[in-house]
Please model this.
Amino acid sequence: MSKAILLVTGFEPFGSVLENPSQRIVEHLAQRRDLPLVTALLPVDYKKAAQQIIGLIEKYDPQAVVMLGVGQSRDAIGLERIAVNINDAPLPDNAGELLQGKAIAEDGPVGYWSTLPMAAMFAAISELDIPVKYSNHAGAYLCNHVFYSIRHYFEQQQSKIPAGFIHVPDMGDEAPAMPIETQIRAIEASLDVLMKHLQLMPLA
Ligand code: PCA
Model:
């Protein structure tokens, strides 16, 4: 088995999202034998999602972690700058758990920066003429939850492994949605940048 290098995750459907584009993106990436990837589909579940990623980190020892999710009102690929230490959403998770105003880690700092190479990713996506924006808030639901939890995990390990979160819009042809093929191209461009940043070569 070749060594896994990048871990990329997406989410299952939830609430009014009947098909999650982040699931489609990871399913597409899982077919790409030329990239050194491990992909995973996460449950929209506070108790399980971050644990599942941590299990994969411990199993595969990836050199970077990119987490994906849909942001329904987004009109561009959203590079998330900051994870905040709060679960606070009007919607329960898929296990029925409703968390409002609860810290993710009682002993954790209020926030963490993304450690992905954001400026280079931004440039690579804009070069393809695909709408991309920085975002200062990933919400306070599962996307922010995994983003914060994984950054907290790496900080506690004193690990410098780059990790961060990218929101994609709903999929579709009408704005603010974005066709899934375009979303895939944007994420693939981001992963190319990340591999260069890590000085990794695609698999032969
Ligand atoms: N989007 C949600 C959770 C899962 C997903 O794809 C969010 O933005 O928190």
